[in-house]
């Protein structure tokens, strides 16, 4: 299906950077309040949608008691979290422990201020864009806020003085560094085609064709990295319940935990809105609607198209959570460093070359479409190859481990145990004996030696 919009008329291109910075103070405050309320309501609805959709996928009912169809369940959970006892464990760094959830939630609100909801409209006689603000480097602001939010997660894990929290914080720092680089690289092709980093002007540049068509490989890389950035299944390693309890927020309760919860769902909405802005034409209506209806991209109607696209991405996140298992940490790192980053660098070089030909006056639209399809095939083949190669490596390691066991590599009696034999490195564990109080060495009982505790 073609996603070609209406022919670019001056009124259709939307606001530009020159249209910002002219609003009166009351309108600026009103925009800030609307964005804040929109995000809070989106969080409540996202929680309800997620629980209802996954309930249907798992043949369960989902929340259906608090309010009609359970619509008020998220509000009830929020009130419960706010009124619960706030427990602060002994030994934590209290200043950092308290600041960490604030550092995680605040950047999530700020990042949404540069997302365009619609074109220029009239509010109480004053013409203003439906956007909080815009900058020449607006997309970089989102990346900067995502990095600031990572500090909240890392500091929460460090200040909790808990091994589970520390492991979650370390996982988060490595994951965000890995996937934020690939996410930034996926934006470069958009910047080259649009010639700007302003979100409003990127939307204006998609008046003819959405970038999901011309830059589909960048779109595919972004969709993968946005899952890694949001710390959700299948990439929720920083808070893997089956491995490290709750990860970085294990020691948090009450309102502090609620702020981490709030930050996660706001990031979900921000990443979905940013993808809509960069690749799906922003607030513009799809081709079948915009072709037959002249007013589809004017007035307040574009807000509807924007919300439909954002909620389609939120549903995609929910669907993934109910469908996919959690990946291993080595698989997560391998995908980020060995697949997404090299592919993104090669794709950027190709896009830059095509853009140079375009600047020379060559017609490159068909070449770009063919190149995008070929690049998507290469990306899919690379991912499948890495998955198959990873499986063969694991089988080889398992075979080596088995031969080691047969040769006496793993202990009987008092022989030492190699904790990293045939697998991933783990902290060394003294199998034959363990240490008790005051550093005294004890001999394990028969029950411990046999594996029952």
Automatic annotation (TrEMBL):
Pfam family, one: NADHdh
EC identifiers of the protein: 7.1.1.-
PANTHER family: NADH DEHYDROGENASE SUBUNIT 1, NADH-UBIQUINONE OXIDOREDUCTASE CHAIN 1
Subcellular location: Cell membrane; Membrane
Family: Belongs to the complex I subunit 1 family.
Record bears the keyword RNA-binding: no
Signal peptide stretch: none
Function of the protein: NDH-1 shuttles electrons from NADH, via FMN and iron-sulfur (Fe-S) centers, to quinones in the respiratory chain. The immediate electron acceptor for the enzyme in this species is believed to be ubiquinone. Couples the redox reaction to proton translocation (for every two electrons transferred, four hydrogen ions are translocated across the cytoplasmic membrane), and thus conserves the redox energy in a proton gradient. This subunit may bind ubiquinone.
Superkingdom assignment: Bacteria
Bilayer topology: Multi-pass membrane protein
Transmembrane segments: 25-49, 95-115, 135-156, 177-197, 209-228, 257-280, 300-319, 339-358, 364-385
Source species: Actinomadura miaoliensis
Record's keyword terms, sorted: Cell membrane, Membrane, NAD, Quinone, Translocase, Transmembrane, Transmembrane helix, Ubiquinone
Name of the protein in question: NADH-quinone oxidoreductase subunit H
Region annotation Disordered: where it falls in the sequence: 395-453
Quaternary structure and interacting proteins, as annotated: NDH-1 is composed of 14 different subunits. Subunits NuoA, H, J, K, L, M, N constitute the membrane sector of the complex.
Gly residues bias locations: 401-411
Catalytic reaction annotation: a quinone + NADH + 5 H(+)(in) = a quinol + NAD(+) + 4 H(+)(out)
InterPro entries xref list: NADH_UbQ_OxRdtase_su1/FPO, NADH_UbQ_OxRdtase_su1_CS
């Amino acid at each position: 299906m073609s996603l070609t919009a209406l022919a670019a008329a001056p009124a259709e291109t939307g606001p530009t950077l020159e249209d910002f910075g002219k609003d009166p103070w009351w309108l600026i405050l009103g925009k800030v309040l609307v964005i804040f309320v929109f995000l809070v309501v989106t969080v409540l609805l996202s929680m309800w949608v997620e629980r209802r959709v996954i309930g249907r996928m798992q043949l369960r009912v989902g929340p259906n008691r608090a309010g009609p169809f359970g619509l008020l369940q998220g509000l009830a959970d929020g009130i419960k979290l706010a009124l619960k006892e706030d427990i602060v464990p002994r030994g934590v760094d209290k200043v950092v422990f308290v600041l960490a959830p604030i550092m995680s939630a605040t950047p999530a609100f700020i990042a949404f201020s540069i997302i365009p909801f619609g074109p220029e409209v009239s509010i109480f006689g004053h013409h203003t864009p439906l956007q909080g603000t815009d900058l020449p480097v607006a997309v970089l602001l989102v990346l900067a806020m995502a990095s600031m939010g990572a500090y909240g997660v890392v500091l929460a894990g460090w200040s909790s003085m808990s091994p589970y929290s520390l492991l979650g914080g370390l996982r988060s720092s490595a994951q965000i560094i890995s996937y934020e680089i690939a996410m930034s690289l996926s934006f470069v092709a958009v910047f080259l085609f649009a010639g700007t980093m302003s979100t409003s002007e990127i939307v204006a540049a998609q008046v003819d064709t959405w970038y999901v068509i011309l830059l589909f490989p960048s779109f595919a890389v972004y969709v993968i990295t946005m899952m890694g950035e949001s710390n959700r299944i299948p990439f929720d390693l920083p808070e893997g319940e089956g491995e490290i309890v709750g990860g970085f927020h294990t020691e948090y309760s009450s309102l502090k935990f609620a702020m981490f919860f709030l930050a996660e769902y706001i990031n979900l909405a921000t990443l979905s809105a940013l993808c809509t802005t960069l690749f799906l034409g922003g607030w513009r209506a799809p081709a079948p609607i915009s072709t037959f209806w002249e007013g589809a991209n004017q007035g307040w109607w574009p807000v509807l198209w924007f919300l439909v696209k954002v909620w389609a991405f939120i549903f995609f996140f929910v669907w993934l959570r109910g469908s996919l298992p959690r990946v291993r940490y080595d698989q997560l790192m391998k995908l980020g460093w060995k697949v997404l980053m090299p592919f993104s660098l090669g794709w950027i070089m190709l896009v830059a070359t095509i853009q140079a030909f375009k600047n020379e006056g060559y017609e490159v639209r068909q070449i770009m479409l063919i190149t995008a399809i070929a690049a998507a095939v290469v990306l899919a083949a690379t991912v499948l190859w890495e998955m198959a190669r990873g499986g063969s490596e694991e089988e080889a390691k398992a075979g080596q481990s088995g031969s080691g066991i047969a040769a006496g590599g793993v202990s009987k009696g008092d022989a030492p145990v190699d904790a990293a034999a045939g697998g991933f490195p783990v902290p060394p564990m003294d199998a034959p004996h363990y240490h008790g109080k005051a550093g005294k060495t004890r001999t394990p009982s028969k029950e411990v030696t046999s594996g029952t505790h």
